[in-house]
């Protein structure tokens, strides 16, 4: 067994999630699997189509929506909410920074607030 002397050489293996949470629910550990059981829209739509009206309304309440009497409108609302929630779990795109040197004009402009 080798001895690790530097902190940068240590590996963290305590199960901490690598990406940062984007919503309060994610911060407290809620996952998409707990609410919808899938991240694929076609699977979720198939699940909704197999529910009877009472179960569909119960699922809407669980998802935080007001149940509607019209089945088609309710499914449309649930799918819309599903897309919104799934999008909130996707990691944010990493923006590439440009490494252009700062010109003297830009440096003068930035120093103007001092």
- Low-confidence regions: none
- E-strand count: 0
Structural class: mainly alpha
Shape: elongated
On the 0-100 scale, what is the average pLDDT?
77
The proportion of strand residues reads: under 5%
Overview in brief:
Helix content is 49%, strand content 0%. The protein is built from six helices and no strands.
Structure description:
- The chain is mainly alpha-helical.
- 49% of the residues lie in helices and 0% in strands.
- The radius of gyration is 24 Å and the shape is elongated.
Write the layout of secondary structure elements.
Layout: H1 24-27, H2 32-36, H3 41-50, H4 53-62, H5 71-89, H6 104-111
Helix pairs in contact: 3-5, 4-5
Descriptors for this entry?
114 residues, mainly alpha, 6 helices, 0% strand, elongated
């Amino acid at each position: 067994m080798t001895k690790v002397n530097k902190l940068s050489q240590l590996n963290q293996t305590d199960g901490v999630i690598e990406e940062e949470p984007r919503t309060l629910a994610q911060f407290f550990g809620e996952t998409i699997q707990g609410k919808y059981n899938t991240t694929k829209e076609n699977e979720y739509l198939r699940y909704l189509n197999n529910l009877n009206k009472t179960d569909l309304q119960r699922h809407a309440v669980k998802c935080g929506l007001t149940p509607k009497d019209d089945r088609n409108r309710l499914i449309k609302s649930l799918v819309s909410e599903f897309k919104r929630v799934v999008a909130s779990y996707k990691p944010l795109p990493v923006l590439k920074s440009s490494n252009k040197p700062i010109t003297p004009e830009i440096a003068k402009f930035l120093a103007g607030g001092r």
